[in-house]
Amino acid sequence: MSLKLTIPAKLFNLGCLAALLFTTSAMAADVMVHDAWVRAMPPSARALPLYLTLHNGADTPVALTAITSADGRVELHQSVHQGGSIKMQRVEQIDIAPHAMVSLAPIGLHGMIMAMSRVPAEGESLQFTAHFDDGSERQIEAKVIKGPAADASGASGHEHHH
């Protein structure tokens, strides 16, 4: 003897939609952003570096595909050693392995804020949105400081110029 349960189609579709929404919000919650800061530069600067740490708490990889801001255009860059000097190379995305952390730090991966309407002063905070390949976003607040010195960013404090 077998029992046959039937679920009305509308209820089934609603359950599937709820499961999808729950899964999407769980994915978005798995990426955390820590220790964001922007290097303070003179008012004549044409670009400012953005540094932060990304932590992927998920069981699947995720990639940072863009950072946006009302304060200027942000490009993802990587420092590359070539012929005795350091050059900047644009990257399309920054991959973060499952349960891994990636630091955007001086002389490494970083964001570059360009086409700014003005150069922010030391002590100001700038707002950014990090965009990931799974469709999730993270809001970021980054303080403008001279350098990491003894702060919690974990960055090395090396000078960085474009």
UniProtKB/TrEMBL annotation:
Phylogenetic classification of the source organism: Bacteria, Pseudomonadati, Pseudomonadota, Gammaproteobacteria, Alteromonadales
Tell me yes or no: is Hydrolase among this UniProt entry's keywords: no
Signal peptide annotation? 1-28
Q: Which UniProt keywords apply?
A: Signal
User: What is this protein identified as?
Assistant: Copper chaperone PCu(A)C
